[in-house]
Structures are given as C-alpha cells and as structure tokens.
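Limitations

Structures in this collection are predictions, not experimental determinations, and the ligand pose is part of the prediction. Treat each record accordingly. The example that follows, with 6-O-phosphono-alpha-D-glucopyranose as the small molecule, is included so readers can see exactly what is and is not provided: the inputs are given verbatim, and the output is the predicted complex.
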Amino acid sequence: GLKIATIGGGSSYTPELIEGFIKRYDELPVSEIWLVDIEEGQEKLNIVGNLAKRMIAKAGLPIDIHLTLDRAAALKDADFVTTQFRVGLLDARAKDERIPLKYGVLGQETNGPGGLFKGLRTIPVILDICKDMEELCPDAWLINFTNPAGMVTEAVLRYANIDKVVGLCNVPIGMEMAVAELLEVDHSRIRIDFAGLNHMVYGLDVYLDGVSVKDQVIKMVTALDDNSFVKNIHGFGWEPEFLKAINVILCPYHNYYYKSREMFEKVKQEAEAEGTRAEVVQKLEKELFELYKDPNLDIKPLQLEKRGGAYYSDAAVRLISSIYNDKRDIQPVNTRNNGAIASIPDESAVEISCVITKDGPKPIAVGDLPVPVRGLVQQIKSFERVAAEAAVTGDRNLAVLALTINPLVASDTLAKQIVDDMLEAHKKYLPQF
Ligand code: NAD
Ligand code: G6P
Ligand code: MN
Ligand code: MN
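Predicted complex:
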C-alpha cells in the first residue's frame, strides 16, 4: 500500500484529510499515514493523531497511523508528502495581521505584508523538506497546502531539486461549489476554466453540463451582497458595472485588490471588535481540540467547517488519487506554467485547470489572459518571485522591494518601515536575515 507523510500533522485540519483518505480508500490503497510535527506542536499532534486513529478504526480500514517528531522517519520511502505546517503557529499569523494595520495597510494571512512574511518564514523550511525528500523519497510527490501556496510553489520550482510538486488551495473547488449552489445543481455538473495565481485566480468561463452559463452566473453574482464564500473573508457586493465589464468569475481574495479601501476598513474594525482572524481562529482551535480530546469522538466534527479550508480533503485526496490512478480528469492546481498562460514565465507557478496524469498535472493552455486581469496577475507574480528570492537570500533590500511592488502597499518608505518592524517581530523564525 501507499505511504503518506503529512508535515504539520498537528493541524486541526488533519481529521479533514483523514476523512478524505477513508472516503477514497477503494481507489487509493493507503497503508500508512505518518503525521509529523515539531516539539511546539507535539500536544496538538497527539490529540488530533489519536482522533485520526479512532476514525480509521471506526472505518475498519487497515491503515496504520504513526505520530512522530522524526521527519526523516516519516519521509523515508513515502509515496506522497503533504504539507500543512505553519511556521511560528497562529501567534506569528496574528502579528502578520496586526502590524500592517498600524501603518494603514491590510493585515492578512496571504496578502500584502502578511503574505510576504508568511512566505519568508515558510520557504526555508519547505526547501529543507525538499532536500530531505531528494534523499529519502526521491520519487514522491509533494502536495503543498502550506500558505502562501503560490509563493511556496514558486520557490520550490525555482530553488529545489524537486520536479514533483503541486500546490493546492481550496478556493477553486469552493468557487465551483458556490456556483453549483447558486444554480441549485449538484457540483459535479459544474466546471470552471481557471487561470491565474493562487488567491488571484479567475474563472474565465463556467459550464453546467458542458454548456457555458457564464452570463447567467455573472448576473447572479451581481445580485449578491456578500461575494465571498470562504469563512475567513466577509465580502461585499461587486458593482454591476465592474463585474459586467470584467466578464470573469472572481475569487474571494480579489476583494483585497478591487475593494481595497473597504476591505482594509472592515479588517481593521474586525480586529478591534473581535480580534484578527488568527485571534478568532485561536479560540476556535481551542474549542476544536477540546472536542478532539473526547475518546468517544470518531468522526470529523462539524465545527471544523468554521475554518476557511473547507473541501481541503476533497481537493487533496482527489488529486493524489488522480495521480496514482492516472485518471486524466480536470482539476485546478498550482503547477509549472509551461506556456499555458502566455503572459507568465514558463518556469513560474500558476493556478490553473489541469489534466491530472500519473506524470502530474498538465496545464490546459489559455493563451494570454484577458487584458483587464493580465496586469495584476503579472504584478502579483513579480511580487511572489522577488519575495521568494528574498526568502532564500535573506536580502532585506529584496524584502523591501517585494513589498513596494505589492499593490497593497502604496510607498517604498511604508514598505521599508513595515519590513523593519516585521523582521524584528518575527526574528526568531527568520534566521536567514
Ligand atoms: P497550525 O497553526 O495548526 O499549524 C499546523 C501544524 O504545523 C502545527 O501543529 C505546528 O506545530 C506545525 N509546524 C510548525 N512548524 C513546523 C515545521 N517546521 N515542521 C513541521 N510542522 C510544523 O496551522 P493550520 O491553521 O492548521 O494551517 C496549516 C497550514 O495550512 C497553514 O500554512 C495555512 O496557511 C495552510 N492553509 C492552506 C489553505 C490553502 O488553501 N492552501 C487553506 C487553509 C490553511
Ligand atoms: C481559505 C484559503 C486558505 C486560507 C484559509 C484561512 O480557505 O484558501 O488559503 O489559509 O482560508 O482559513 P482560517 O480559518 O485559518 O482563517
Ligand atoms: Mn488557499
Ligand atoms: Mn506598492
């Protein structure tokens, strides 16, 4: 059977992943799942790992769950390595969210300064994991869920000696689910042609049973007063003029770019009223882990749906299954562009609909992106590339440059101040600087 290694196994999302493997056991014969964490996460690992064992026992499947702090033991001869770790845990995320607000800049997990710093902390760790994989499981696939997933995939493609990497986000599958709900049809009948970057992905067309329903969907989206369907973003309505003219399906993260002012105010007010998203999630996580401790619990609790990562397991396990079974179905993932989007370099990571084969995702070429979206996608890709280079080199100038070219930061002076403040706040997790 297959050996899976999951790095960041103490994540509260682990029951979600385990449920995915249970549901697809018929097509994906997993025999071992190794949940790896670090000392800081050991308590969480034990609690959620024991729940995972109860879930497997209840399902009556011959899957061994191993809980370990020994990454090498977990990676040895693994077939698939999934990553869901958070360097610095939620305390670091709270800083990513709070510090920029002082400067009048959005504080968010994967966008603007927060996204930059999460990347700076994460990229050295993922590259280290890749080095271990070269040695311990050179044929394994790396399925990365760790944010910022686009920047992290970019860094692996450019700086690691690993070709078999796929970045994964639940937003595209969530967009298909949301469209299915609007049209009141089963989601299996909906397909969106995705192209763009992680958290900057566009639906270029959308089909019901293979027939385009884009005009109808855009009309329906225009009528919504909350355009976001992920639990971590509370959106607004789009202006009908804008939506009609741009003529694509937007993702929730576009709110930060096309509604920057309103989103900044909203995020700031929420931080003052109930805490930043990380602070809210810290409470939620406590509740979840209390539930997970219950020795009678042997399924994924519903409360996990309050987290932003809904459908993660579906996305992850259907991807692994399609690689393993050479299914050649279409799934949106982060992969090497290889010319699929004309305005992005071949070797860069893009989030795009792909045919999933045993040799990995084959992106479906879209040519050039429509003019109204092309520039922003290129700009964010430049941000991700410069940020990844800053993470690898520890060059503070590059960190300032990355933040200055980010559309959410309006000045180089502001960028420099925020970078200095955040380098100091996060120095424990930024040994390269
Ligand atoms: P979390 O704070 O619970 O962290 C998960 C685990 O990672 C913790 O148990 C922690 O101890 C461990 N960890 C930290 N550093 C580690 C290291 N160097 N090696 C191994 N383990 C380490 O995080 P979470 O809220 O469950 O989220 C996990 C990750 O998934 C985050 O990076 C988050 O941004 C990401 N995420 C991605 C998506 C997506 O769409 N791609 C959606 C949701 C969450
Ligand atoms: C969304 C995104 C993730 C993000 C998450 C945050 O689903 O796709 O990339 O990390 O939500 O959720 P949280 O519950 O941690 O705020
Ligand atoms: Mn995501
Ligand atoms: Mn700028």
